[in-house]
Amino acid sequence: MPDGSPLRPARSLSLVVLALILAVPGWAQASDSSDHQQQARELAALIEAAEYREAEDRLRRILVNHPEHPLYLSLLGYHHLKVARLPESEMALRQALETRPREPGWLKLLSSALLGQGRRREGLEVLDRAIAITPLASFRVDKAISLRETGELADAERELRAALAREPDHAEAHRVLGELLAERGDHGRAFDHLTRSVELDPTDVEARFRLASSLLALDRDDEAMTTFWSVLRRAPGHAATLQQLGRQLLKSGQAEQGRQMLQAFRELTDLGDRIGNLERVVRDRPRNVGRRLELADLLMEARRPADAVRHYEIARASEPENPSLEAALRQARELATAATQVEAP
User: Over 70: is that where the pLDDT of 171 sits?
Assistant: First the structure.
């Protein structure tokens, strides 16, 4: 059942991993390291600003003169990961790691590229190498998410607790551990972790939804309803919240509003099926701009502008002069920004 939560293909790469990519001692000779470092930072800024076409063009020109330079190869791999060109990302990152095999940020990127291609065993082996070098909380959270997806819950919990031992205020670690505990029926401890996650990151609607669900399981219905409504204000297309609100409204005798909520849930569920089908298409054929734009438009229809932004940005790399695409991207960004500014109750 769709819950309105975003996909996580390269989740949380931007800050920690990008810092690791650029903080590589000794990667260039002293005579030119300053120039290379400045160029690398400019390229990283372009990638982070979703100026994918310009970033790739500049990287390609630089690599003509420095074809084996590991920093530029790692940035090319990062670029390809951001635009969902996973086999190309893997190739560039493996080339970078041939020169510097112990760079944790590059290993993390390669792990994401492998996991995104469904090569779970290889991806986790590479991620373990990164953790052995630099056991960052974000690396352990990524590993825990992958373990949880295959039912290895005890191992996932162990990774999450290790992440929190290193970084007690890691919002995502608290959220994922809360989800895991809730799935096991331990809603009391889940509530503690989910509450902390929301405190640390009030914009995380999935943490709010999970917190509301645990409140409901603890028979704290009024607090649960308040929290469900706060999710809906931030993410009007969060289908699972519509379903829970509809059920609770019917249960409390508010039949008309409950039926409206459940009807909206059914419509979004149908839309979610169409979105899921298109997500599979663009995952298999990442250069198909038409289908990617269709997916972005459906995400907007489902009131998921933050997810739509990513696909519009990737499409823009192929069609930088498309005015209608620019207008759609601008609207999606505005709506996504507005959603993050909704105040909590």
Answer: yes
Confidence grade of residue 286 (pLDDT, cut at 50, 70, 90)? confident
Residue 115 has pLDDT above 90, yes or no: yes
Name 24's Cβ contacts closer than 8 Å, sequence gap at least 6: 70, 71, 100, 103
Residue 17, pLDDT above cutoff 70: no
Residues 66-84: b if buried by 16+ CB within 10 A, e if exposed: eeebbbbbbbbbbbbbbbb
In sequence order, what DSSP letters do the residues of 116-138 get, joined into one string?
HTT-HHHHHHHHHHHHHH---HH
Closest of 44, 8, 47 to residue 141, by C-alpha: 8
Scored b (16 or more CB within 10 A) or e, 236-256 reads: bbbbbbbbbbbebbbeeeeee
pLDDT over threshold 50, residue 6? no
Cα–Cα distance measured from residue 191 to residue 210, given in angstroms and rounded to the nearest whole number: 9
Q: How far apart are CA 108 and CA 228, in angstroms?
A: 35
What's 101's DSSP letter? T
